[in-house]
Amino acid sequence: MAIEDKIAAAKEINELLNNIVRLGGFRVKYRIAVDPPVNEGTEWDRPAILVDFSGPDSSLLVARGGELLHALEMITVESVGDMLDEHDRISFDSMGFRQARTDELVMSANVAAEKVRKTGAPYAFSAMNSRERRVVHLALRDVADLRTESEGEGPARHLVVYPKDYKGKAPAAPMSGRPGGRRRR
After folding, report:
1. Euclidean distance between CA atoms 174 and 172, whole angstroms
2. How many of the other CB atoms lie within 10 Å of CB of 114?
3. Beta bridge partners of 32
């Protein structure tokens, strides 16, 4: 996608977030970066537009597993997503939450891989959103003796790590009460 289109989408995002922050009474500031630099080790997770929040209410955005941060991102994607190409992504972050969650998912993927190797049985993650499933898929994409598949529908969609030649039935996702396996507190 042309940089001009991304800049136009960033301006729309700024206008939308300005209204949400002002009308919601949030004490946050945000920075919008178009084609932001890539963090080492996450080349495959580069957004076209990154919105990074800071300020006294930042902790509200990342509370409860980042629910509010994710909700703001989803509203924004619905609002301006048609301005971007299908593969261009908008990503919201605050207090390093996204990187910490990505690191957690990569570590979980590696632990699951070892468990599958040790037991020879598939490992099912709890339900998680498409972005989190993608992180796990990509973290294990070069592992020759395993394969990953998304299973289930809608909010129950989850990822399973299989031994490469496994032919049995897919295991059900563990019940967690919440996508990504994080319980509400």
Report:
1. 6
2. 11
3. 51
Domains, in order of start, for the chain:
3-95 (3.30.300.20), 101-181 (3.30.1370.50)
> Which structure tokens are listed for 173?
């996702």
Residue 42: its pLDDT value, please? 55
CA atoms within 13 A on the CB side of 43: 1
**Per-residue pLDDT tens for 18-46?**
999 999 999 999 999 998 887 655 555 67
Name the burial class of residue 135, with classes exposed (0-12), middle (13-18) and buried (19+) by CB atoms within 10 angstroms of its CB.
Answer: buried
Which tens digit of pLDDT belongs to each residue from 75-113?
998 898 788 776 668 889 999 998 898 899 999 999 999
Q: Are 145 and 178 in contact (CB under 8 A)?
A: no
* C-alpha R_g of the chain: 18
